[in-house]
Amino acid sequence: MSSDTRPVYTRILLKLSGEALRAPGSRDNISPEIVARIANEIAEATRKAPLQIAIVVGGGNIWRGAKASVRGMDRPTADYVGMLATVMNALSICSAVQEAGVPAHVLSAIEMKNVAEPYVRNTARAYLRAGHVVVFAAGTGNPFFSTDTGAALRACEINAEVVMKATSVDGVYTADPKLDPAATRFDTISYEECIARNLKVMDQTAFTLCKDNRKPIMVFDMHRSGNITRALLGETIGTIIS
After folding, report:
1. Rounded to two decimals, what is the model's pTM?
2. Contact, 153 vs 208, CB < 8 A?
3. Across the 242 residues of the chain, what is the mean pLDDT of every consecutive 10-residue run?
4. Which residue, 15, 39, 95, 169, is most buried by CB atoms nearer than 10 A?
5. Rg of the chain's alpha carbons, rounded to an integer?
6. Domains in the chain: boundaries
């Protein structure tokens, strides 16, 4: 794809799993090598097409508020700790993207002016129009909402054309492929069929936001080398929900 070719999508919300930043079997919560690979794939995509890329990353490699609350911690407090975990991941990704040669910024829903800019919708949109990568941190800034919901909300606010959910599987299946070897993958599927089949693509709030605002969701395997670049450039990989 040449530098002047228009990709399938121009403004993209890329949702990354926090767990994906940890190397399998490692005690390190964040793998610099994995983060660098992700950043390099993002940078490669921006060099091939005029993309506007926003990122939301989870914090599950460091902390899960829901699990902590089950063990007796106050749920809002546990969720705020989880939001801070997403800030650490966002800073790591932002720094790696900058090292890869692309301007990038962390915008946080919780104010922490020494390490991140506050989330302001118009600021985010201005950075995107300038070709900068924007990393949204701290979820929605409110407890009881997942980073999937934060991703869906930010996608709607910045008018992203698609939500790309990078996961550990290569799409949406009829059942969990790790548990059911007979499970088959969908190339495309409707929101309605996902709901009818009770397929766990995102939590219900996030999924409903995407459905109501007509944001297609691409689910793909981020661990296969080059897949992030391919997805950002609009190649048909994984499953499209629309």
Report:
1. 0.93
2. no
3. 64 94 87 96 96 95 76 87 94 98 98 95 98 97 94 97 92 86 91 85 89 94 92 92 92
4. 15
5. 17
6. 11-241
